[in-house]
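Researcher: Good morning. I'm working through a list of sequences from a screen, and I'd like to move beyond sequence-only analysis. For each chain I'm collecting a predicted structure so we can compare shapes side by side. This is the next one on the list. No need for commentary yet; just the structure.
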Amino acid sequence: MKKKISKYIDEPVGALKRVTDFLPPPHKLFPAEQKVKITLTLDKKTVSFFKTSAHQLGAKYQRLMREVLKKYSQQFSH
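Model: Good morning. C-alpha cells for this chain:
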C-alpha cells in the first residue's frame, strides 16, 4: 500500500487566534537577589587573581567573587 503524500500549502488552515505574549520581560526571568553591602579586607594576591580571571572572562571581578562565594555557601548549606 502506497503512503499518501500530503502537499504543503502556504495558507492558514482554519480560524486563527492571536496568542498574547506569555513570557515575562527579560529582567524578570532572572530576578536579582537581594544584596548586602559590606566592607571586606582581602590580600592583594587574591584580588589580583579575581581581577585577572574576570578580565579573561570579560566579566567584573566583584561579580565573579560574589558568584564564587555564593557557590561555596550553597555547597555547604544544609
